[in-house]
Design brief:
With about 425 residues, the protein is α/β, with parallel strands linked by helices. The protein is built from 14 helices and 16 strands. The chain folds into 3 domains: about 5-170, Rossmann fold (3-Layer(aba) Sandwich), CATH 3.40.50; about 175-290 and about 330-355, Argininosuccinate synthetase, chain A, domain 2 (Alpha-Beta Complex); about 370-415. Bound molecules: arginine (ARG).
Length: about 425
């Protein structure tokens, strides 16, 4: 190790990253550790906790504001209708943004290495390292490499008199950012355990609210205004989290297949994401052709998988984005959303690009663009032609077989007659 070696640590002030600070010095021989906390919309208390813990540890602490970049990333995910097994990818989308921001601080401070406090079981280690391993810095994962358990960390923290609060046995593990709040661990690890209402912080108990209707305006696939008021990305998401959350919109309780193959039980809250995803898809339903919609579902699925893996920088995603962006040129218009019974249901949509002719679809017009109702007769005659033919061929073959059988067994009778 060189003189005065420095390591930048992804720091939250929680138990894992707090124990990493002395461990990086003792076990990995670094002279200096700097902690970096990246703001992707966590609640203010989390920054206070990080700040206080850093101070108590005498840790050089940086806070980087990446809210705008993250909000843009979330709205790009809306263009691809991105969800993974029903989860709108809040944690997954945030990790590369956080990793980039930490890498920048590490490089500015001439660090030799970069570290995270993720375990060897989750997705986040992979998402962080996919970004960091593009640099020349050494990547360190003390919790994974030293095989630490929560229990060991608690004891070590007590022994070293480290400033850890929370992290108690039985506490949920929570990850919050602008796009979603995730709750896992403790009792929730039992897939059959029904969560108590108090795990939810962003969403009211659904079904007890007055019905409310709002209008969301989109421009080229991005939401830009709510009820006529233009809002920058961060504020738009925050506003919809408050509003839709007050209607109990956006709860997901699911089994999630992690990248390493583990199945885990997850609970998520994501009111803005649900509202925007529903509205966006409703607008696409109006402006895209049937074949664009069908093909886009496959593209969206691939996009969401790469997002889950933290690999949106993959060349494949550039190509997928080419298709997504081409389709989004027409995704401009407004959608009316009704909050009712914990749902954010699209109940109206409008666009200058609507692939829709009211007179063509209406029951009240006889002919459109010179095409009369009766012109469909030929189409109707042909519709299903191939299936009918195939079924007929199969039925004829069956009949022939049956006939041969009866002929064979009836031979004697016939000769006797
Ligand atoms: N399983 C989710 C993902 O990989 C989120 C996990 C969030 N972490 C937490 N401690 N609640 O994207």
């Amino acid at each position: 190790m060189t003189d005065n070696s420095t390591v930048a640590l992804a720091f939250s002030g929680g138990l894992d990253t707090t124990v990493c600070v002395p461990l990086l010095e003792e076990e990995y021989d670094y002279d200096e550790v700097i902690g970096v906390t990246v703001d992707v919309g966590q609640p203010a208390e989390e920054f206070d906790e990080a700040e206080e813990t850093a101070e108590a540890l005498d840790l050089d602490h940086y806070v980087v504001d990446a809210k705008d970049a993250f909000a843009q990333q979330c709205l790009d995910a809306v263009k691809a209708n991105a969800t993974y097994q029903g989860y709108p990818l809040g944690t997954a989308l945030a990790r590369p943004v956080i990793a980039e921001a930490i890498l920048e601080v590490a490089e500015e401070n001439d660090c030799d290495a970069i570290a995270h406090g993720c375990t060897g079981k989750g997705n986040d280690q992979l998402r962080f390292e996919a970004v960091w391993r593009e640099s020349d810095l050494e990547v360190i994962a003390p919790v994974r490499e030293l095989g630490l358990t929560r229990e060991w960390e608690m004891e070590y923290a007590a022994e070293k008199d480290l400033p850890v609060e929370g992290g108690n046995e039985g506490d949920w593990s929570i990850d919050t950012n602008l796009w979603s709040r995730s709750v896992e661990g403790a009792d929730l690890e039992d897939p059959g355990y029904v969560p108590p209402e108090d795990i939810y912080e962003w969403t009211e108990t659904p079904g007890q609210q007055e019905i409310e209707t709002i209008e969301i305006a989109f421009e080229e696939g991005h939401p830009v205004a709510v009820d006529g008021e233009e809002l920058p990305a961060v504020q738009l998401i925050e506003h919809l989290n408050d509003l839709a959350g007050s209607h109990g919109v956006g709860r997901t309780d699911m089994m999630e297949d992690r990248m390493l193959g583990l199945k885990v039980r997850e609970n998520y809250e994501h009111p803005a994401a649900t509202t925007l995803l529903n509205a966006h898809e409703a607008l696409e339903g109006l402006v895209l052709t049937e074949e664009e919609r069908a093909f886009k579902q496959q593209v969206d699925q691939q996009w969401a998988e790469k997002a889950y893996e933290g690999l949106l920088s993959a060349p494949l995603v550039d190509a997928l984005d080419g298709f997504v962006d081409a389709t989004q040129q027409k995704v401009t218009g407004t959608v009316t959303i009704k909050f009712e019974g914990g749902q954010a249901r699209p109940v109206g949509r409008e666009s200058e690009y609507a692939v829709y002719s009211e007179s063509a679809a209406s029951f009240n017009t006889e002919s459109v663009d010179g095409i009369a109702q009766s012109d469909a007769t030929g189409v109707a005659k042909y519709h299903g032609f191939q299936s009918r033919l195939a079924n007929q061929v199969a039925a004829d073959a069956e009949a022939k077989k049956a006939e041969l059988l009866t002929d064979g067994s009836g031979d004697d009778e016939e000769t006797e007659e």
